[in-house]
Request: fold
Amino acid sequence: MRSRRWLHSEDSQAAHSYTARKNSWYSPTIFVLGFIPIFTFALGTWQMQRLQWKVALIDELQEKLHREPIFLPKRVNLSVVPEFVYRRVLLRGRWDHKHSMLLGPRVLEGSHGYHVVTPLIRSDGSTILVDRGFIAKEFADNDNFARGEPGEVEILGMLRTSHTRNNFTPDNKPSEGTWHWADVEAMADYAGGEADHVQPVFIEQIYEGSSQDAALRLSKGIPLGRAATVDVRNAHLSYVITWFSLSAFTTAMLARLVMKRRVQNRARPLPR
Reply:
């Protein structure tokens, strides 16, 4: 009898002293899952701000593009050129074909070719660079780009700056006539530089004709200018969706892990 009471007392004490092992809340998994939603949400918020900025920028450039064309002064103030990017301009002068350059390679509607950049000697004696547009590779190989309209011409274009070069763009080789990207300063030097009154001002010629006339120009090797549109890339919306989606997904994973830990940490009955 005394032995049974002793065993019962031991079981009672064990029941009071037994505590189920709890999983720690401070684990690397919970730390990472707690950090990722905050970090990705912050990135999504930043990209949202970038999206608003980019939309405002495109609207501003569109508004500039629809203003009345202007004539450039004889001496262009280079410091204010960025403020006039995408402004339409009217130019009169004669082509300096001997200093024409091929910029590329480029692709237009599946056709491989180049853009023709030719200095335009204006009636006031100053010279600027004009991207006259696209020609197919076979005409570039036949040096058709070095020929064009004789005498004075009048063109409509829009003011641009040097292209942004990425890490995969090869170096230009002016001595070999190889131009992969529009380095306006180097192109102006190639065309004669300050000694020949060549200014590092870059104009892209605008084409406003019909699609039939455009096809005819391409078939004859006549450079085809670009449409009067703003070509600023805007991928921020996709970034916003990506970061906010990742934040929501990792938040759901964190909540699921927390619920699982709570279930595991509840008091468990003694094993029998």
In short: Residues 67-220 form one domain. DSSP finds six helices and seven strands in the chain. The first strand starts at residue 70 and ends at 71. The chain has two domains: 28-66+236-266, 67-220.
